[in-house]
Every structure is written in structure tokens, then in C-alpha cells.
Amino acid sequence: MLIEASGRRSSRLIAVSLTLIDPFRLEALRECKILYDRSDNTGYRRQSMANSIIIPTDGSEYAEKASKVGFDFAEKIDATVHALAVGDVNQTERSAVGGGPPQTVDDVTELAETWAADLAAAAEERGLEATTVVRSGHPAEEITDYAAALDADMIVIGTAGRSGLERRVLGSVTDKVVRTAPVPVVTVRSDGSIDAA
């Protein structure tokens, strides 16, 4: 991907590889305009500006921090925010085997509808165009499937910052999205710092 980073004194082009396995830190990304994206490795796709940014939400503080970064991007590049929430079928499966209170697909879908509506309302309060999307299934799969179907320009997603054994055993939705998304992914850590992959 080629991005234009506009500084106070000059603009410069930065080449960013999206094929790296490990995300890298790119603090200047907030000031960047995506010019070219070669995410499918078959050729360059011209992008004068992004027009669709997916911001997945699970109602958590991490999703809220990511939404603020996503809103900043959307304002800078006049993009539509797609507030995406997934009714996580993992929750219904866990409750069925004694992992928590009983939850039906309807329960988790209702929660997802609330999260998506809240995120879209926050985007609209900032003067952004927003749409709500609610899906049911496994979150990482639903997020990447929606990004592919929409041909989205970017996903901005929060991360809980898991580390060590918990991350290796459980993985995370964010990790899976970063590894499998067909579009660029910006991850936002709990401290508000960002990574691009």
C-alpha cells in the first residue's frame, strides 16, 4: 500500500507492506491518505480516498476506543462508517455447556443490534454518514466476510491486548481478522495506540 503522510512542512509517500505476518506500529497513520492498495497481490487498485470503513463493535471499552480512531479516519477521508456487530454464536454454545447464563441466538443478536445502533449514533453525532450491520455467527468470520462482500476500504478494530498463554490458547477475534481480512486492518490497543496490517 502506498500512503501519503501529510506533515506540517511537507508530504511524503510511505510504502507499507500488507503481507507482513506481524502488524507494525505506524503512529503517523492518522495523518495518512491511502493512495494505492495491493492487498490481493494481483495488482494495484487506485484509491483516491476510502469510502467505507468497517468498525466492528462488541460494546466493550476496546471497541469504543477503536471507534474514535475509525471516526477520525472517516472524517479525514469522507468515508461511510459501517457499524458492525455480530451476535456471537460462541456465547450460546458456551452457555449450553455450563459456561454461563443461558443465552439464545435472539439474546446475542439483540445485544448486537444495540451495540451497532449505539456506534452508528455516535458516528452520526460527529457528522458522519453511518449504517448499522448486524450479523450472527463467529465474529472474525462474519467481519471478514462482510468486508469482502462490501469491498470495504478498511477495518478499524479494537484489541484487548491479550498476551502470553491466553492469547496462544484462545486467540482473539482481532488476531483472526488481521490474519484473514481481505482489506487493510487498523488495530487500536487499549491505550489508544494503533497498528496497521
UniProtKB/TrEMBL annotation:
Family recorded in the similarity comment: Belongs to the universal stress protein A family.
Highest taxon of source: Archaea
Lineage: Archaea, Methanobacteriati, Methanobacteriota, Stenosarchaea group, Halobacteria
Organism annotation: Natrinema versiforme JCM 10478
Gene3D superfamilies in the cross-refs: HUPs
CDD domains reported for this sequence: USP-like
Name listed for the protein in its UniProt record: UspA domain-containing protein
A Pfam family annotated for this UniProt entry: Usp
Residue ranges of domain UspA in the record: 49-189
InterPro entries per record: Rossmann-like_a/b/a_fold, Universal_stress_UspA, UspA
